[in-house]
């Protein structure tokens, strides 16, 4: 266990379990905020929610190599531990679990946790490959077993991931409550993401059209347009300087495409801006 003037930083599973044992014996609530670091105010909102609801808050920081479909993306992913620890301290979280890759995936590690079905095969699963969500479900299962929290907090910006994790918890009887918290945006509308730091000023301006496309879709649905193809065509028309991967209108729970907008739907988008891949989503209300 490593003690600094910031939060207590723990590097091993044994030390984490030892640190959590008194809280668990006391029957108090443990909250977990899983992250890959490069923390921002979106992560801070998850910590604030956990702090309000739990007796002890753990923030995990681990860049999971198994959920990256491109080695270049893994290599470029920002790593800012010192700044991360300051943000965690400001949020009042109690522990940071920041293991090395070898601690999570020791030599000879051969397990993998997989889900099947539309939740992992559509949208991100279709464009990033099935291995992406296999990597997510494997590492989240490990973090849940390492920490054994009562509640875990995730952001709605990764709406598909949140649905996948909720099913994971149900299917494997983890007994953990999953809280999905609202997307946090900059004043100009860009959803906060650790990848935003890699955008140049001109790329960031182009990235704003991602949220603008979602807003167009929301306006059309609110105005009574019910045809998905019409909405998608109009929404993607406003994109500028980005390479669109998908813009989809899907059921918010199953992620299956909708044929008509007669109930709330999820608009989900993925696009590359320069070398940076961004995702966003918005619930559309007729």
Descriptive report:
The protein is of the alpha/beta class and 286 residues long. The protein has 11 helices and 9 strands. The protein has helices at residues 13-25, 41-53, 71-76, 81-91, 101-104, 118-121, 124-128, 130-147, 159-171, 201-222, 228-237, and strands at residues 8-10, 30-35, 56-61, 95-97, 151-155, 177-181, 243-250, 265-273, 276-284. The chain has a 6-stranded parallel beta sheet with strand order 1-4-3-2-5-6, sandwiched between helices. The chain has a 3-stranded antiparallel beta sheet with strand order 7-8-9, with helices on one face. Strand 5, helix 9 and strand 6 (177-181) form a beta-alpha-beta unit. 37% of the residues are buried. The model has no long low-confidence stretch (mean pLDDT 96).
